[in-house]
Structures are given as structure tokens and as C-alpha cells.
Amino acid sequence: MKTYIAKTISLTVMFLTLFSCDSYLEEVNPNEISADIYWSTLEESETNLISVYGAMLNEYIVNARVESWRSDEGYPGGRFNDRSPADGQDVSLFAKNWYEHKINENTNELQLRWNALYQVIFRANQVIEGLNGMTDDLKSQEKWTLQMGQARFFRGLAHFYLHSVFKQGKIIIRDVNPVKPADFAKAASESAEVIAFFRKDLEYAYINLPGQMLPKTKVDAGAAGTILGMSYLYEGDYAVAKDYFDDIINNKKKDYGYALVQDASILFTKAGDFNSESIFEINYSMHKAEDNSFNEDDFITRSARYSAPRSGGGSSNLETFTAAAWLIHAYASDEMDPTDPRNTVTDRAGVVRLRKVSLRNSAMLAVVNDEDTEYYQSPSAAILQNFKTSGKYGYFKKYTNHDITNDENTLGVNSWQSGKNVVLNRLSGVYLMMAECLNETGDIAGALSYTNAVRKRWGLLALEGAAYDSQEEVRTRLQLFEYPMELCVEGFSTRNIDLRRWGIAKERYTALSERNFYATDYEYLNEEATGTGTRTASLVREGISTIETDFQIVPEFSAAAEFYTDGYLPYPASETINNPKISN
């Protein structure tokens, strides 16, 4: 959670740095500012560095809604009248194509993501080129090195992201900004060349940035080291990846100051912004909210509306993202440690009992049987939400303001606007990646130790015994449960990249398409705590129900099992049409 987004940016700077990628082939790059005019002081370059952070605000970089649809974690819209996206009745063609892995080069949000990431690169290049043009006296100052480290981090990061999701990693390296229209015509580089390029940038940041930057919202060496470790993990180089993760966790080279948050109630809440577990986080804010909710340079995000229930100010249309049935069931099946005092509660009726769902479930998903967690200022999700009517049985909490309001409409000009921060990397994810590296290099005990440290934070039973005494068993547990249950819809395309690199995506979708789930009635404590109410067909169970009032959920992911190919995205048409040196 270390991304610095300034609270104010002057109109002059915004004019100089704003770059329209939709028409960039016809325009001289407006980011090209004469260094001898603009880069005369480090205060000026610091101001322009803000625009690089600002480019990360673009909703289409993370695009959690779309990424959830094309992973095994999310579901688009509701599940009404035995319909599903497979028959095209509940969701738009837009959502259906992502969910069914029928994305082509004309898919709009594909083009928007490509453009958004190259805008980060263009702005970072402007800072890098300006800094390189400064006097030797300015270059000798620590502030110059810190600015260069941050700019190169973001240039490396954007190339890493592009490499991770587009065209088998064969993307265009932009190491300098185009000046003339002809400069935009550039061929894609081979994957290995791209990797070498972005690692060089990230290594510079890793070496030259401090372990902890002030303010905490700025990127630091910990963020760079985490991304470097991920780059090696994604290539299957577990030994090198493990060294980076070991450094981040155990402060081997610098003092990063990270620690797992033990107060589970603050994760993914306003109170938990920039906490000790935070490594890289986009800092949104309502400070500069304007009427235009689709200005990607503004400080707001639309993800809250997309993932909130309608009763909390969420979207009234069907193109929302909610949890897949298997994920809801997996959280419900995760065993709590009965000896952990956090798992014993006194409910609103004065009854002492175990929690209805785990702390991890409560932090990640709003479900009908979580009666121990307030949701949008209602005592429980069951009181707030009629799950049967919506056909949505698990609402992701990571992007909503459920902890500070009763309705998303109260926070901005309208419910499209949210200032909720977006987490890209945190320490628990590094723990799980470290566990994977240890398991794949033969240290099963070490892998379980890191995995159980994360589970203990949530008051869950440790993974131990004969069920976890082989690499294959630990691997399966990490891939199918611990990763998605800890990191669901989090990060940059994390789950989709993981399924692809493990080579299990098609097998996974096929297995899920063969599982059956249904929703049954749930009796809950009413708002006055004087009696009970019933939410019909709201609690997800596995199997085929014979009860007439239950709702049999149509098997999910059948189309994904059929149409999934290699998990990469094609080049967008905006690039192939205008760049004669690149094609799908």
C-alpha cells in the first residue's frame, strides 16, 4: 500500500502530462517537454513525478470486475430463473464474453487497459528523460536518485504488467517517448528481452530506494523487491524468487518494516489503509471528486459500485462481480480454531457461541450466514440484503465502503464514485508465494510454516498431519484454496496469471463446471434481536437439492472450460490498426 497520489495537481501540470492514447498515432506526443525549460529544479521534476502516480489511478489497469469474470473466482450478475451467462439471458454480451473467454482484439476494455499501461510508461519516460537532462549537481543529490528510482519502478512495473497478460509476453518496449508520429510504429520484442528490460528498471528501484519511503504512500524498495520476486516466480525460477521474498519478509537487505496485521477486522477497511501488511496500494480519495465519474485521472474508483449490493448503493444492472459458488462454499468449509478466543462471540441476543463464519470469510465476503459482522451499518448482511431476489450469494468486500457508510451514494457525487484504496500487493501474498517456492524446492515444512502463519492470523486451524505431507498435497492446497481464499479478486490479474503459469486453468474450469451447488433457506436473528427471520434460497450448499423452495445453481464455468486457450490477451485493435509493425 505504497502508492503516492497527491491531493492536488495543478491544472498546468495536468495539461502538460495528460495524454490521450486513443489518438496518439495522429498526435505529436504532448508529454515531450523541453528539458531545458521544464527540468531546471528537482521541485519541478517532483511535481511531474506526481503525474506518473496519477496514471495508476486509471480504473482499467486493475479492472477487478473484468478480471474476476475471467478467473475462477467471480460471477457476472445474478443467477435468476435457472439462467446463467452461458445462455446469454442474464448479462450483456460484454460480460458474457469475458466470462466465457471469448475476448478478441476489438474488446473495448482490452484496448483501455493497454492504453492505460502505456500512459504510465509515457509519463515515467518523461520524468526519466527530464532527470537525465539535469546538471551534474542536481544528479548528485539524493532527491534526484529517489525520483529516478520511483520513475523507473513505474516504467518497469507497467512493462511487467503488460508482459504478464498480453500476447505471450511479446509487447512493445518503450524506453523513450515517441516524438514524431512515425516513432509510434515499433515492433514487439520477444518475451526474454522484455523481461530483461523491466527487471533492469525494477533492480534500479530495489537498490536505490529506501526500505521505507516517507510518506508511506510512495513506492519503495519493498515494492520493487516484491515485483522482482513475482517476475521470477512467474517464470518458474523458485530459487531466485525465494531470495527476494526472504528479503522482504525477513529484512535481509533493508528495513522494510512489514508485518502481518493481526487485527483481522481492519483489513480492507478505511481504518486499515497503509497498514503494516501493505506493500503496494493505489491511494484513491474523494478529495477531488467531480461530476465526471469516468475521468481516469480523477481520484475516484468505480469498483465499489460494481461489487456492492444494490441495498448498499451498488449497481442496479447485472454487470456486477460477485463470488463464484465454489468460493463461497470454500470459505464456509474452512475450519476455525475453536481455541482462538476471537472465534467465540456473544451475539446480539446474548448467546455465547462460535462465529458463524471465519474471520477471513468476514473480511473477504458478505454472505447470508455472517451474523457477526456489521455490513453497511446493518447488524448483518442477512438483515440488509435479500440474496434470493438478487441471485448473488457472496459480495466481495475489498472494493466497497461497507465499513464507513450505509450507502455508497453518500460518499461522492453519486454511487459511481469511491475513494476506497485498491490493494495490489501485501505481505500475506508474499508469505504464500514464499510457501510455494519452498514447497517446489522440497521444503514442505517451511511451506506449511508460512501458510499457517497466514491462517493463524485469521484464527483458522493449521494445515498439518498426513493430509499435507507431500509436495503435491501442499501444492494443491495452495493453488485451489489458500491463494484464492486469501487473495481473491486482488492485485493485477493475479488469479488468471496463476492459473495460467501452473498450467491448470482448463482443468480447473472443467472440474468446477462438473460441481453442483444450490441455495437453501437461512434463518437469521432479526434486527431487534427479539426473534428470527428467514432468507429463502440464500445459503450456498454443495450438491443437488430435492427441496422445492431451494434454488439449484446452474453449473458455472462450463463455457470457460470449452473456450479457454492460453490465458493471454491479444493486442488491441487500437494498436494493430495504427502500428504497421505489430499484428495478432
TrEMBL record:
InterPro entries named among the record's database cross-references: SusD-like_N, SusD_RagB_dom, TPR-like_helical_dom_sf
Gene3D superfamilies, A to Z: 1.25.40.390
Keyword Signal among UniProt keywords: yes
Primary localisation category: membrane
Swiss-Prot/TrEMBL keywords: Cell outer membrane, Membrane, Signal
Domain RagB/SusD: 277-583
Keyword Membrane: yes
Domain SusD-like N-terminal: 93-228
Family: Belongs to the SusD family.
Name listed for the protein in its UniProt record: RagB/SusD family nutrient uptake outer membrane protein
